[in-house]
Amino acid sequence: MPGRNSVVAWMLVLGCYLLYRLAPGWPQVCDSRYSLLVSVNVLRHASWSLDNYLPPGELPYQLTRTQPDGPVWYGYPLGSSVLSLPIVLALMLASDGPGDDPEAALAWETRAQVEAAALVAAGNVAVLFLLARLWLSLRAALGFTLVFALGTSLWSTNARGLWSHTWAGLLLSLTVLILARIERRRQTVGLAAGVGLGALLFVAWWTRTHLLISVLAVGAYLLWHHRRVALAYLLTLLTLRMALMAFSQAIFGQLSPPTVYSAGVLSLDEVGSRFLAVLLSPSRGLLIYTPVLAVWGLGLILYRRRLADTGLLSPALLAVTGQLALLSAYPGWHGGACFGPRYFSDVLPWFFLLGVLATQAVPASIPWRGLETAALAWGVLVHTHGAINRQPWRWCQRLTQGDPEATARDWSRPQFLAGVTYRN
After folding, report:
1. Crossing angle of helices 292-302/348-361, nearest 10°?
2. How far apart are CA 252 and CA 381, in angstroms?
3. How many beta carbons lie within 10 A of that of residue 370, not counting itself?
4. Strands 63-64, 73-74: parallel, antiparallel or unpaired by DSSP?
5. How many other CB atoms are found less than 10 A from the CB of residue 148?
6. Residues whose CB falls within 8 Å of the CB of residue 91, separated by 6 or more in sequence, listed in order
7. pLDDT computed for residue 100 by the predictor
8. Poorest-pLDDT segment among 29-43, 95-109, 148-162, 375-389
9. Which residue, 400, 361, 345, 358, is CA-closest to 117?
10. What domain range is 28 assigned to?
11. What average pLDDT does range 354-377 have in this prediction?
12. Which contiguous run of DSSP H or E holds residue 184?
């Protein structure tokens, strides 16, 4: 059976890579712009600066300086740049890489990001399949994983450009898979598990700062169930954090890499309104774009006595509720130029785990399966539309050039209907 699982997993990597790569939708290269040019400069010049690709005029929002006349740095987390080094090297060997012209280099990087995002997202699908196989039959796990791969932001966001969510999602899926195997063994766990979990989540956090919520959720789970492993986990996080500080001091002259993020951006004003918006707004509402999550949540409540491996509920629910609380307190909850509830991409592996546990527990009654199937079908239609149709991406101009709050809440022209009932 392990051999069959491996074969199916590799088939998923290939099939999903081709699907994601060949999708005709607009490449979503926004915050990640310049991230792979960092990889190019590291490989070519052992340099982390982007002075050689600096366009004329005002500094793009993705770039920053630590000194007025100092080097130009990529201002978002560098995890994606580092993790993508092998992919970028392969693409450079195949095409000689970008030239010296900044505009041509950005065009090359866009193509590279489409390749990298498709490959990493496809790898994420394979890991999720292996996670589902811990509870579901091969056929059920395959079907469940494919629908999730097409009916969530994994398809319409992670696979459409090298967002920081893309690599972070793969690392978090590997983390959840390890946790699930630990939970199902129900025996003493070696300290190596703590080291592995700490390393995975540290790199995930370095790739996507918001993954700190999952770092804390996993730490709480280990402290409650596996205290010796929790110590190894904590020491690994601290050791890698110190290593990152030393690296940053040596390269950037400060204890943390340069960033465009600002402190103090959270606000408790109108938190209730934002809470409803991140769940139900027409262009960013989680339950509007992926309503099956409500179905699974109902299943977890109604059939809680039938659930297997309930210890896994604590880190999953901590991470999901933490993400929801963070977005409810964040004035920029609408996410800028993107499709749907992009920010919830940070907890997609936890959603997948909760969905598998609910599916395993709920009896196979026709009414329930009908409701679940209808919700899944809606998610596939919506996220496929966002991934392959360019009209939903053009809708983003309305959000970024107008009032983002009002635009994201406007039911007269929701993003998921762009190109269906109206055109931008």
Report:
1. 50
2. 45
3. 10
4. antiparallel
5. 25
6. 97, 112, 115
7. 83
8. 95-109
9. 345
10. 2-417
11. 89
12. helix 164-185
Residue 422 in any domain: the answer is no
The C-alpha atoms of residue 116 and residue 84 are separated, in whole angstroms, by 7
Over residues 127-134, the mean pLDDT reads: 97
Non-local (6+) Cβ contacts of 305 within 8 A are none
Rounded Cα gap, residues 56 and 171, in angstroms: 36
Of all residues in the chain, the percent with pLDDT exceeding 90 is 85
DSSP-H helix ranges across 271-365: 271-280, 286-289, 292-302, 313-328, 348-361
Residue corresponding to tokens 């025996």: 187
Query: How far is CA 240 from its chain centroid?
Result: 22
Helix axes 138-150, 366-388, angle to 10 degrees: 40
Please report which confidence band the pLDDT of residue 97 belongs to, taking 50, 70 and 90 as the band edges. Answer: confident
Residue 188 lies in a domain: yes
pLDDT in the model for residue 95: 85
**pLDDT value of position 264:** 63
What b-and-e string marks burial along 304-340, b requiring 16 or more CB atoms within 10 Å of the CB?
eeebebeebbebbebbbebbbebbbbbeebbbeebbb
Angle at 94 between CA 99 and CA 52, to 5 degrees: 20
In a domain, 378, yes or no: yes
**DSSP at 77:** -
Q: Using a pLDDT cut of 70, give the percent of the chain over it.
A: 98
Q: Is 250 exposed, middle or buried (0-12, 13-18, 19+ CB in 10 A)?
A: exposed
Amino acid at 42: V
Q: Would you say 170 and 177 are in contact if contact means Cβ atoms under 8 Å apart?
A: no
- CA proximity to 102, closest of 54, 140, 142, 150: 54
**Model pTM score:** 0.96
Q: What is the largest CA-CA distance in the chain?
A: 67
> How many domains, in total, are found in the chain?
1
pLDDT of residue 211: 97
Q: Say how far apart CA 345 and CA 347 lie, in whole Å.
A: 5
Residue pair 368/300 in contact (Cβ under 8 Å)? The answer is no
Q: Tell me if 424 is assigned to some domain.
A: no
